[in-house]
Amino acid sequence: MSVRKIQLGQLWKKDGTGEIYLVTRVYSEALSTVAVLRKSGAEQEALIRVKVERKSDGQMLHGFTPAQEDEDS
Asked: Which of 3, 32, 57, 73 is deepest in the core (most CB within 10 A)?
């Protein structure tokens, strides 16, 4: 499932575990875009970086599903 655009503050659910992650940063690196995620409620844990995948209908994070509906849809 994809969203129109990945932005700061969005919540994503990790597939398999159901843990919620918060997008804390989105940046371009070479020819790709990377999202930095932090586990919700675990500020001391390491951040994870996930490559943003572009699809015809928007963007997505591999292994994650949006935790909330896209408000622009």
From this structure: 3
